Amino acid sequence: xxxxxxxxxxxxxxxxxxxxxxxxxxxxxxxxxxxxxxxxxxxxxxxxxxxxxxxxxxxxxxxxxxxxxxxxxxxxxxxxxxxxxxxxxxxxxxxxxxxxxxxxxxxxxxxxxxxxxxxxxxxxxxxxxxxxxxxxxxxxxxxxxxxxxxxxxxxxxxxxxxxxxxxxxxxxxxxxxxxxxxxxxx
Length: 186
Hints:
11 helices; 59% helix
């Protein structure tokens, strides 16, 4: 018998099923993962997460394994390389934002000691369990702060998705086999 998953999960896409089953809404506050997911989520703006997820490994290669020191120092030559890569989302504004956002991410790490500490300054240790939302007060707060710091493509909806991706928000549906698993991890 097939496991029941959240209704949005495209069962025909093994990458999506794996992401749903093993990553989404699972708390992961490792700095490298926090940066990777923020970069990928920023490319989602106006697109589906499935589209971005399908290109994740191509992004990993093109973005030097999401090495924040390298990404934050990309120059015009690297920008052109990214924009000419047909395996990526080739949006100049998003590519430029990914570099600027990496620089701001690093400055936040320096200011707070880690990006995790920055996030916890808003969320504390709480895990929010809710469904059928696309923004909330927490995503609004973090989004507004990141925008004030100069980040781009970090609206409240993107930040809400980001918080789900890293597990600060848990949104598995009640009928989903992961609902109880994720809740018991807390």
